[in-house]
Design goal:
Elements: E1 2-8, E2 11-19, E3 23-27, H1 41-46, E4 51-56, H2 71-85, E5 90-95, H3 97-108, E6 113-119, H4 129-139, H5 142-156, H6 161-175, H7 196-204, H8 213-222, E7 226-231, H9 238-247, E8 251-256, H10 263-266, H11 268-279
Length: 283
């Protein structure tokens, strides 16, 4: 394993490079989380067949930054990663907000992407959160509600930045069992790193591009092969996936039964088959 260090305007990105062969870059979600894909079984699957690159996005864990934290800045960072790797093209695998980042990168640098895999993609435009929030609410247990209420009371009574940051991280992690299929609550991930300031700033401008017809047309013209994988129990509604399909003409959509937002934890065998078939990996 080699350490990846890429300095761009506003941050020094830190990550890892493993394996050999064509380059695939894993893009974590959040926004504001950390390189959980690089630490997942998904990376382990690919290392025998690919040069697997992953990193903490700006402001996350080992890539500290004072901002700004926009999608455009993350696109610029990703292009800096490509150049640092000396790769003419790479494959992108983005999860959640990382999928939105992949598509925004594709719009600006269409020749840089060989293929794109979008796992449980986050929305490209506004209007989805009401359904998302209702689903999360319906899946909360009484214990979760009490714990969330306790955290909210603590947030209301403290102004200490470090303490508030940890409380928001705990609140987010506490809700993650509601992101998975209800029959698989025990497969929800932990989230030891979460930067709420990054999350708020990056989310605030995430949907602006979709409303721009020029932006949508640029993505359509790319004709990049794309594979969209989404769980039927994902609290992110299916309309979000349909938006991606509408602007990616070469996309195939696969829906996984009994699966929520984290397919490598909830439906690993199905995800592995789909991923290997799309990437042309044996096995």
């Amino acid at each position: 394993m080699n350490t990846l260090t890429v300095t761009t305007e506003g941050t020094t990105l830190t990550g890892q490079v493993r394996g050999s062969g064509p380059v695939v870059v894993l893009l974590h979600g959040g926004p504001g989380c950390y390189d959980y894909l690089g630490e997942s079984v998904l990376a382990d699957w690919l290392i025998p067949f690919r040069t697997v690159v992953s990193y903490d996005q700006r402001g996350c864990r080992h890539s500290p930054s004072a901002g700004p934290f926009t999608l455009d800045d993350n696109v610029t960072d990703l292009e800096a990663v490509r150049k640092a790797l000396g790769a003419e093209q790479f494959e992108l695998i983005g999860h959640s907000a990382g999928a939105a980042l992949a598509v925004h990168y594709l719009r600006q640098y269409p020749k840089g992407v060989r293929r794109a895999v979008l796992l449980s993609p986050a929305a490209l435009r506004d209007g989805w959160r009401a359904t998302f929030n209702r689903t999360l609410e319906s899946r909360m247990t009484d214990d979760q509600r009490r714990a969330v209420d306790e955290i909210d009371r603590a947030l209301a009574s403290t102004e200490a930045a470090e303490e508030r940051s940890e409380l928001y991280r705990r609140r987010f992690e506490l809700m993650l069992p509601c992101y998975v299929d209800p029959s698989r609550r025990d497969r929800a991930p932990r989230m030891p790193h979460f930067n709420r300031a990054v999350n708020i700033s990056a989310s605030a401008n995430a949907g602006a591009g979709f409303l721009d017809a020029t932006w949508r047309d640029a993505v359509r013209r790319s004709a990049c092969p794309a594979c969209i994988i989404h769980g039927r129990s994902d609290p992110v509604p299916l309309s979000v996936v349909q938006d991606y399909g509408a602007i990616l003409p070469a996309a195939t959509i696969h829906l996984l039964d009994s699966c929520g937002h984290f397919p490598w934890l909830e439906e690993p065998d199905a995800l592995r088959r789909l991923l290997f078939a799309f990437l042309g990996v044996p096995g």
